Amino acid sequence: MSELSADELALYDRQLRVWGADGQNKIKNASILVINLNGVGTEIIKNLTLSGIGSIEILDPSVVTEDDLTTQFFLEESDLGKSKVEAVLPKIQDMNPRVQLTINSKELPIDDLEYFKKFKLIIANNLDAKLLQKLNNITRDLNISLYTTTTHGLYGYFFSDLILDISQFTKKKMPISRKLEKISSNQEIIQIETTHNKETNEFFEKFTLKSKFIKFEDCFHSKNLTKLTKRAKKNVSPLLSIFLALYELELNSIEINLDSLKTKSNEIQLNLGLNEITNLEIFEKILKQLNFEISPVAAILGGTLSQDVINYISKKEIPINNLLILDGDNFTMPIYEL
């Protein structure tokens, strides 16, 4: 693992105050693959490049269209018809020349395992359901962390499968001390050490957290939400089951329409231990905005995911486990552990 140079210490001065030299060094030595440079992908690339990620490869076989100009700030009218990744490469490199940036304008080589072994983490944006299923199986087999995102107009989500993460975190000691116990269905504190800063007379707890993650397709069989109270179940966003329904319908090559989406979504609600969706208007809203991107939504979702990636790599904060939903209608971003 290469250490930070004097120039890098100066360049990342503000970041070092947040996640420290050790965290920045972990960021410097990370290798990430970003699949599909849509609006969310553009925001992710910007944030990760500025953070000082060691190497990033951007894979996108598409060419620039007029729709891209509304959500991707690296592009301009003169780029229309050009390879998207070739058009953005120099502009991203200018943001931080220290990041090793490569582009790939070919289709995702889903059967080439050697290709994926180069990366510690993969971020897939709006990936076809069948490709996502194959990719998640590959990342599991190769022990590679995976984030996946999807947006539909005012709505979107990101899902994280970090497989198994055992990390240490240091926090100020609270009036009620932490215990060696499960703190949620997927997370458990397995070690605690209390320290004392004599200069400030502050006590800290260094604890080791074991976090288990699941594959995206295993969300359908999760029983975690069945443990919620009746009131909490009522507050679960219907977007959760709708997003899962869209994935399953596409995976099984079933036409996505109002009837199929309602039926599949409520079937998933039942499987997750939730009540039937009564707000029927939400189905029509989703269908009207299917696979459509809105710049502010892309910025918020991409920025939130980027911060979670930094938290995960730097080990400064606990990463989200495992599904975050962005509801642009209600201005909420609930997190569900499935």
UniProtKB/TrEMBL annotation:
GO biological process: protein sumoylation
SUPFAM superfamilies according to UniProt: Activating enzymes of the ubiquitin-like proteins
InterPro entries recorded: ThiF/MoeB/HesA, ThiF_NAD_FAD-bd, Ubiquitin-activating_enz
Coiled coil: 244-271
Keywords: Coiled coil
UniProt keyword Transit peptide present: no
Span of domain THIF-type NAD/FAD binding fold: 12-333
Molecular function per GO: SUMO activating enzyme activity
GO cellular component, one term: cytoplasm
Pfam families recorded: ThiF (PF00899)
Descriptive protein name: SUMO-activating enzyme subunit 1
Organism: Wickerhamomyces ciferrii (strain ATCC 14091 / BCRC 22168 / CBS 111 / JCM 3599 / NBRC 0793 / NRRL Y-1031 F-60-10)
